Q: What sequence folds into this?
């Protein structure tokens, strides 16, 4: 029996009424101040959720503009060899906000738009998306803790995130950065004659990195120190394992991008020459530094999504997850290998031997990833599958993420990469992994936890309609881009040869379907908040700690400190909390001889 | 169902700040189960943060290694402009300060309030001495000679065309280290202030002293790597 000393100086043992964490306490202005100064991980999680969703909206608008531009091939310039000299003729006009007298303005706007899209989506949306919103809200609750280890640091990280995002958006809106989200030198050191925009953008990415480090550090310490009594490492839900692996990458990789971006700022302001070949520097060194962070960071984007999928599939098929330890260790495996594969972004800038090594290491990533996918599919086998929105999204993830993962292999192989690199094939691949993986899983996770976060149910019909549009729109938009890439359409160009137009039109129409899907989801959520049915504490019959407390949780998460008495997925042994045993019949073998596990 | 009563909401503490912050009166944050758990968590968090700092400097060391391999002559020439005696003196200053920072933690654990403050003051004086030596004997004379980073470089007697690059790495490395000296000294000054004003640290409450000292050791450690790499090349 675990005993815990609660006799601390200044502690009051008297019970007083605790309401939902959402309950406003001191009037309208007071509520705003209460939220702005809160150190409650749930409120911070919700604030992060709204902030990243706003960024997703902004980045999405930029993407729609990019797609709209690509409806027309409009070659602005053709260069021909005539009469022994190169002659340039301007044949078309890039319509987007362009100046009729200056063809270059249109392409510059296009370059800024895709930079806006990339930078927002990567630095401000997808890196913090799942860990900072759902992770902040559910990591402490799933561990049975009252809060993360360092609550004030948590609030600080939110403010750092907000200020970083403001810097970043300002730099692009006030005239624009057109380097692409990777800030490759020498683009980033020579374009923008006024200096400050690129510096501001790079500074924004640097600042956002701090927010990422603080969140990751907080989560690692929380997982180590604040697990509920009786909860060993292998009693943790797999979502926690995934966020833990993510946090390790955040803490270890982000400082490297920090110093890289600082060096870039010094390069820009003082021309120290580190990345400038004219002074003896090496621009490829920048790419090594950049991808040493930015490759691991794509696993920061996907790992928490994988954690969500483990939860969704187990809960909504009421089945013990297949291969718990394999999934947990494959998260750590992916985190480990992620640090060794950065070279595959710069195959063409390295020697043959090094490229081959990096190619081989890249294939290694496929192993832990495939372990996860096969374990998920095995979990479904003989499960009581309920086809509700979270489950549909989990199945969608399995489909789109597998395509995304498998198309990574031809890009990791040297011979095929030579043909495919810098083409739309790459664009389609990472959108299948990032959007078809992370975003799809995140939407599924939001639906899964929505009743818990806000205490309201959503309209299942509406959500399923939205899911259908998202699935259709996503595949129409990005599957076509595999073909475009195979045929040779390069990425980041506003104009293209006429042969590609049909596929580009199909892709753009797909982006509109996606927009419709997201708008339906937005309506469903707004409707749920305003007029949704009150959610029961455990609508899905989940077994992890968040389903033991009320919906929405009380301010200190639990009335009593929870004890871990069963595994997170023991659906065949335990009746879920707050659920009727009639609705959740246990299989006959779960008799007296198979008692619930005892507590150390 | 076995549950443990976790209802201990601390009443807002009405005592004056001086009493509240006195080390004997310190409780623990509400979401921790015990004072030890909080201490362990804070120390673990600090070690993780130090790991991020090491990785930050790793980037600079990496750039150093790349360019030293590419331009060994420029690196050797650049190193000869630096006076190893001054660098060595600064190393000694930082080592002493690291020792007194460690002693400050020990004094807090033993409730030796007077020596805690004395050790912290010596550490801060060493930090000031380090910055003074660095500015007065290194940065200012070098900058006046025109040995400045990048485009500001105007030293007319360079032996090697890649020397500006060396100065870039030198100023970035030592400059970011100097920034850490300021941050570390700021933390220790804060500890000194709270030790003097509130007697905030003692045998059961020395997290902040220990974590600031750990940070200071990192500052020292980075310099121990920077010194031979920059000053002692042949």
A:
């Amino acid at each position: 029996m675990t005993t815990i000393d609660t006799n601390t100086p200044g502690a009051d043992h008297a019970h007083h009424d605790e309401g939902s964490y959402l309950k406003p306490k001191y009037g309208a202005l007071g509520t705003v101040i209460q939220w702005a100064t809160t150190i409650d991980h749930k409120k911070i999680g919700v604030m992060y959720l709204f902030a990243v969703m706003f960024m997703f909206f902004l980045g999405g608008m930029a993407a729609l503009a990019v797609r709209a531009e690509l409806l027309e091939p409009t070659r602005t310039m053709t260069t021909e060899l005539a009469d022994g000299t190169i002659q340039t003729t301007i044949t078309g006009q890039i319509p987007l906000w362009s100046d009729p007298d200056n063809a270059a303005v249109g392409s510059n706007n296009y370059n800024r738009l895709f930079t806006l899209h990339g930078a927002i989506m990567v630095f401000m949306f997808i890196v913090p998306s799942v860990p900072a919103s759902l992770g902040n809200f559910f990591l402490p609750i799933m561990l049975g803790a009252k809060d993360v280890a360092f609550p004030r640091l948590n609030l600080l990280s939110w403010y750092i995130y907000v200020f970083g995002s403001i810097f970043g958006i300002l730099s692009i809106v006030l005239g624009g950065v057109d380097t692409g989200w990777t800030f490759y030198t020498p683009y980033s050191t020579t374009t923008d004659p006024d200096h400050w925009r690129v510096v501001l953008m790079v500074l924004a990415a640097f600042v956002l990195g701090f927010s990422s480090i603080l969140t990751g550090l907080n989560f690692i310490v929380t997982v180590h120190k604040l697990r509920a009594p009786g909860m060993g490492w292998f009693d943790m839900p797999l979502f926690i394992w995934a966020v833990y692996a993510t946090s390790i990458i955040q803490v270890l990789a982000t400082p490297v991008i920090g110093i890289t971006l600082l060096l870039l700022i010094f390069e820009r302001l003082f021309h120290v020459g580190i990345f400038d070949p004219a002074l003896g520097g090496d621009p490829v060194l920048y790419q090594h530094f950049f991808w040493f962070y930015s490759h691991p960071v794509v696993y920061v984007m996907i790992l928490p999504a994988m954690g969500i999928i483990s939860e969704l599939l187990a809960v909504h098929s009421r089945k013990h997850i297949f291969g718990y330890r394999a999934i947990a260790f494959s998260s750590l495996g992916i985190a480990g290998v992620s640090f060794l594969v950065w070279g595959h972004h710069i195959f063409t800038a390295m020697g043959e031997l090094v490229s081959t090594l990096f190619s081989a290491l890249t294939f290694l990533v496929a192993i832990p990833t495939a372990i996860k996918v096969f374990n998920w599919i095995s979990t479904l086998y003989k499960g009581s599958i309920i086809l509700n929105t979270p489950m549909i999204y989990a199945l969608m993830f399995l489909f789109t993420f597998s395509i995304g993962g498998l198309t990574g292999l031809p890009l990791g192989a040297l011979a095929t990469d030579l043909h495919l690199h810098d083409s739309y094939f790459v664009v389609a691949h990472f959108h299948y992994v990032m959007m078809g993986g992370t975003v799809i899983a995140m939407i599924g996770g939001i639906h899964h936890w929505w009743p818990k976060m806000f205490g309201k149910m959503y309209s299942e019909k509406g959500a399923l309609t939205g899911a259908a549009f998202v699935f259709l729109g996503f595949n129409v938009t990005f599957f076509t881009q595999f073909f475009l890439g195979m045929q040779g359409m390069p990425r980041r160009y506003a104009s293209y040869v006429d042969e590609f137009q049909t596929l580009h039109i199909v892709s753009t129409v797909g982006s509109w379907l996606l927009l419709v899907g997201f708008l339906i989801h937005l309506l469903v959520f707004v409707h749920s908040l305003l007029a949704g049915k009150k959610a029961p504490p455990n609508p899905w019959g989940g077994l992890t700690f968040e389903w033991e407390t009320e919906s929405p949780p009380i301010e200190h998460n639990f009335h009593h400190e929870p004890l871990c008495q069963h595994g997170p997925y023991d659906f065949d042994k335990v009746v879920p909390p707050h659920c009727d045993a009639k609705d959740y019949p246990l299989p006959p073998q779960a008799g007296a001889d198979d008692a619930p596990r005892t507590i150390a | 169902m076995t549950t443990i009563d976790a209802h201990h909401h601390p009443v807002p503490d009405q005592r004056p700040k001086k009493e509240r912050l006195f080390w004997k009166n310190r409780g623990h944050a509400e979401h921790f189960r015990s004072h030890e758990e909080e201490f362990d968590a804070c120390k673990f968090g600090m070690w993780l943060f130090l790991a991020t700092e090491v990785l930050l400097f790793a980037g600079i060391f990496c750039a150093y290694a790349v360019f030293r391999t590419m331009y060994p002559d420029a690196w050797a020439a650049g190193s000869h402009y630096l006076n190893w005696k001054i660098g060595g003196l600064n190393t000694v200053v930082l080592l002493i300060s690291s020792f007194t920072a460690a002693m400050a933690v020990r004094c807090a654990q033993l409730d030796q309030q007077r020596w805690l403050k004395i050790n912290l003051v010596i550490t801060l004086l060493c930090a000031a001495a380090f910055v003074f030596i660095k500015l007065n004997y290194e940065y200012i004379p070098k900058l006046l000679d025109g040995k400045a980073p990048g485009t500001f470089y105007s030293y007319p007697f360079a032996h090697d065309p890649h020397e500006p690059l060396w100065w870039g790495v030198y100023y970035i490395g030592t400059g970011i280290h100097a920034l850490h000296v300021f941050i570390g000294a700021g933390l220790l000054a804060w500890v000194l202030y709270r030790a003097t004003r509130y007697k905030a640290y003692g045998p059961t409450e020395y997290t902040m002293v220990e974590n600031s000292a750990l940070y200071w050791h990192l500052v020292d450690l980075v310099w121990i790597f920077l010194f031979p790499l920059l000053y002692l090349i042949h």
Observations:
- Chain A has one domain: 27-79+88-547.
